[in-house]
Design a protein that fits this description.
The structure is a homodimer. In chain A, 49% of the residues lie in helices and 9% in strands. Chain A is built from 19 helices and ten strands. In chain A, helix 6 packs across helix 7 and helix 17 packs antiparallel against helix 18. Chains A, B: InterPro entries: ThiC, ThiC/Bza_core_dom, ThiC/BzaA/B. Chains A, B: One of its GO terms (cellular component) is cytosol. Chains A, B: It catalyses: 5-amino-1-(5-phospho-beta-D-ribosyl)imidazole + S-adenosyl-L-methionine = 4-amino-2-methyl-5-(phosphooxymethyl)pyrimidine + CO + 5'-deoxyadenosine + formate + L-methionine + 3 H(+).
Chain lengths: 437, 437
């Protein structure tokens, strides 16, 4: 092998087969793609051990991608049920799946997942550590934390969330700046607990170079987690969040020195007018690295509808340059998502990504909308259904409510503007009262 | 009576009882409210014949309001079924209901609606004209169109959509600038048809002064309709739309000369990065009149999910100064909404309005979110439910998936960040493995 990672290849001027695939999918000139990868503006998460992967690029100028969270846990230990979700998520064209398994047969699940998934796979190794070692959190050693990451690399995981920006300095900032919801990142709170209980530095920060060696060995992309992301509107864009983002910027450069591909994770909860500033800050402080956000949720008051609060935030974020959206389901803040929750979350997230792509001018994004609108103008229902983000639902909705006239729908009936405009523009009369035509 | 309309009162320095109610609800100084009403920046739609009205203000500095569309039609003629929806819409705190009835016992429905509704009532009189006169559209006379408006005024309608900006000039612009989806406004397309079939000027434009006399007599607010609103991403912010908006600005001034309160209606479909410019244009060209938008829908490709595409657009619009959102349901582009569709539409729209209010800094808007986040930090589930935009759904979601530990939820179980942070910050240990606590 003439290169270690995709970034190393890009910097050496080598075109990998993954680059070729991404270049074709996105209709991006391969030299431009390679240059952006060399600069870290685009990543192709592709672990050398993930043989079934259909690679996707994430970053500048590319379509906004979405991630689906799954995994087994104490409250939901059924491997087969989760693998069923995986199949559907892939059918629904999620580009990434994060395995957040925290309990039970996590190794079996992860290996099956990597084996079957054409979508890229991400994990948060710290979730797996307690179960893997069967040791209480505070007793896990620094070396053991790193070994879990290595294990995930061996298993073919394409990107790992590592909360390396939570260090003694950012913890000081956190303690000085009171928050309403403290640390809401699951991995972040576990690391904070470990640091406090052991009075030690964050092992992922302290042994960051070793971590990078592991990532480079498998070409595992590092997704720098935002342990201090805001968990409420009140905490949005606060000192702790920005202090951590600055550390993530430093860690980005160190990763790039070792040709490790980097993604930056972002909020969280914030008022929608703060989103643009957050994207600008990330792109600046993290030197153009791809930005991956969880939401942002633009209000706290809608549990049961956080697929909507995050679709609002995600669309705005994507329009300003966010590259990768983590889906949020209606179950957020309430329970583990069911299969139906997952589907709703995927669709809301894909809508947000596409709305963002239209706004940021991703090449070809508006062709889809143009086709749909032309079908609407022609009242070509079959064409409309086939272009719908959810063909089945659109079809079902119309079928459940049959219109008087086949060309219109029950919303307007014979007052359908499309129907009447088409007639008038063809020089025909229109009628509302008569039923013969 | 010492004044004709709320605007007339405001200009004469008179404080009406409606102003007092709105001032208290919004916690806005009554003199500021009165001044803004005198300038046309705030309206209180309140027909003198709508006795059951609980008045609401719409405009600058006030909470963003939402409207629910209802009504009987050929495909859904059941008066009682629609009145049942009305009750639920009011229970769900929709501030406005537009009766879009187009067929059947529209008079009976409208009168019952006004009689029972504490929410303000709007109509689009042209929808009612064909049925009211039992005459084909093109045979309805100018005087008859105006008489329908008068009838709605007598019946106590608080605001009427009048597409007076579609005139011979704007039709010329429309014909010169090809569109993908032509005219998608139902009322707009009917008026266009009438104008083309009769080769005449738009009666609402030609007899605008007479129309204003009618509106002034009942203090019926005029909601200047956007006949030329874009119906597709491709047509967003085009020449026809802006040409009409300029006419609406002229008509606004003419209405204000007669103390008639004015709302401006807006898009429609557009890329999300165009929304801010649209709000700036409306506020400028229409001299600060309140802006009422249908969406905007930020993509065309999601029939079945247009409550989400419009929540994205509506939240952004509200954040930039839009004052009033027309709800959009999952049934948009497919069928008349069912009761369930209506509920989903109301909630999505309320989320958008509130997210906008947080961003534009409406007084007190963030208190709701702060309370919710404090409840989350305390893991006080009862408090969270009672603060939820949909208490029932939030409760049901949690109940359907019981967690191992009562304080957490099945999403994270014992890895709950709130739970663990609270323990660590109290100096306690945490455990993930042991089940005893």
């Amino acid at each position: 092998m003439k290169y270690t990672t995709q970034m190393d290849a890009a910097r050496k001027g080598i075109i990998t087969k993954e680059m070729e695939i991404v270049s074709k999918k996105e209709n991006m000139d391969i030299e431009i793609l390679r240059e952006k990868m060399a600069k870290g503006q685009i990543v192709i998460p592709a672990n050398k051990n993930h043989k079934s992967l259909d690679p996707e690029g994430i970053g500048s100028g590319l379509k906004t991608k979405i991630n689906v969270n799954l995994g087994i846990s104490r409250d939901c230990p059924n491997v087969d049920a989760e693998l069923e979700k995986v199949k559907i998520a892939i059918d629904m064209k999620a580009e990434a799946i994060m395995d957040l398994s925290s309990f039970g047969k996590t190794e079996e699940f992860r290996q099956k997942l990597v084996n079957m998934s054409t979508a890229m796979i991400g994990t948060v190794p710290i979730y797996d550590a307690v179960g893997f070692y069967d040791k209480e959190l505070k007793d896990i050693t620094e070396k053991e934390f790193l070994d879990v990451v290595r294990k995930h690399g061996e298993d073919g995981v394409d990107f790992v969330t590592i909360h390396a920006g939570l260090n003694r300095d950012t913890v000081k900032t956190f303690k000085k700046n009171t928050r309403v919801t403290n640390i809401v990142s699951r991995g972040g709170s576990l690391l904070y607990a470990w640091m406090e209980l052991n009075n030690k530095e964050n092992p992922f920060y302290e042994y960051y170079d070793e971590l990078l060696e592991i990532c480079a060995a498998y070409d595992m992309t590092i997704s720098l987690g935002d342990a201090l992301r805001p968990g409420s509107i009140a905490d949005g864009t606060d000192a702790s969040q920005i202090a951590e983002l600055m550390v993530l910027g430093e860690l980005t450069k160190r990763a790039w020195e070792k040709n490790v591909q980097v993604i930056i994770e972002g909020p969280g909860h914030m008022k929608l007018n703060e989103i643009e500033a957050n994207v600008i800050l990330e792109k600046k402080l993290c030197h153009g690295a791809p930005f991956y956000v969880l939401g942002p949720l633009v209000t706290d008051i809608a549990p049961g509808y956080d697929h909507i609060t995050s679709a609002i935030g995600g669309a705005i974020a994507a329009s300003h340059g966010v590259d990768f959206l983590c889906y949020v389901t209606p179950a957020e803040h309430l329970r583990l998502p069911t299969l139906e929750d997952m589907k709703e979350g995927i669709i809301a997230s894909k809508i947000a990504a596409h709305a963002g792509d239209l706004a940021k001018g991703v090449q070809g994004a508006d062709e889809w909308d143009l086709k749909m609108s032309k079908a609407r103008q022609k009242l070509d229902w079959e064409e409309m259904f086939s272009l719908s983000i959810d063909d089945e639902k659109a079809r079902r909705y119309r079928k459940e409510s049959s219109p008087e006239h086949e060309d219109s729908c029950t919303m307007c009936g014979k007052m359908c503007s499309m129907r009447n405009m088409n007639r008038i523009m063809e020089g025909k009369d229109i009628n509302i009262l008569r039923s013969e035509d």
